[in-house]
Design brief:
By secondary structure, the chain is of the alpha/beta class. It has eight helices and nine strands. α5 packs parallel to α7 (about 210-225) and α7 packs across α8 (about 230-250).
């Protein structure tokens, strides 16, 4: 049996209010060239009941305790058989029902399948209504050095070949996805900008709720990859930009 083009992986925990919309955005795709994996962290609400309603359409799912979000993501990676891995957490949705078909058609016309695909992200509220485009927009060209300016591509709109995707580093509690994306880009020989909105991102995730700890971890990750002096210089620029934006806002 040929391996699917995409392994779409959803991580859940007590997600009964938002999971079904995520699942439907995958299972109603016009393309069938994917597998769908759900890793649940032993939810105590009705999450598992919702998963069971769709079990015949899900390639693999499990509900068991884990050591946190990134441990669950590693379980998803280890179960993935597709050419590309794509994380779509509970509350997030694929942008359109023809998205996988359109991406598959575009990839098939390229000289070789790229190692990383990326695109834009729309932010939505708890009712799935559009709020805005993500503030950090994807650059025209993306390399591992691009992330010196922050996480320019949302994790949910960053799709990597399984063959270059490492496990998530569990020493980071909130920003291991930042570390993971940089590692994928360092390993990638070809990176493809889809110039497409790939996902709707529910802007209420773990990283948002723990922003201070997340930013501290990102600082350490940036020091590791880019060096301590460049990282301090870049963060000085971040501070100036923030203060300028705050000043302009007061003048309006």
């Amino acid at each position: 049996m040929a391996k699917p083009l995409f392994s779409i992986i959803t991580i859940t925990y007590n997600a009964e209010k938002v999971l079904e919309e995520t699942m439907r955005s995958v299972l109603m795709q016009s393309s069938s060239d994917y597998e769908y994996i759900i890793i649940d962290g032993a939810s105590k609400d009705k999450t598992v009941d919702i998963i069971k309603q769709y079990k015949d359409s899900i390639t693999y799912w499990v509900s068991e305790p884990d050591k946190g979000l990134y441990d669950a993501m590693n379980k998803g990676l280890n179960a993935a058989k597709g050419e590309y891995v794509w994380f779509l957490n509970a509350g997030d949705t694929l942008y359109s029902l023809d998205l996988l078909r359109n991406l598959g058609d575009r990839i098939s016309k390229l000289p070789a399948s790229p190692d990383v695909l990326y695109g834009d992200t729309a932010l939505v509220d708890g009712q799935g209504k559009f709020v805005s485009m993500r503030r950090l927009r994807p650059p025209r060209k993306l390399t591992w050095k691009s992330f010196r300016m922050g996480m320019l591509v949302c994790h949910q709109s960053f799709v990597a070949k399984r063959s270059i995707a490492p496990n998530y580093d569990l020493s980071y509690r909130f920003s291991s996805d930042f570390d993971w994306c940089i590692k994928c880009l360092k390993a990638a020989k070809t990176v493809f900008n889809t110039h497409t909105i790939l996902t709707n991102y529910l802007d209420e995730g773990v990283t948002t709720q723990n922003m201070k700890a997340s930013l501290k971890e990102r600082f350490e990750i940036m020091k590791k990859f880019y060096g301590i002096i460049p990282t301090y210089i870049i963060h000085g620029w971040f501070a100036i930009r923030f203060l300028f934006a705050k000043h302009v806002k007061k003048q309006l």
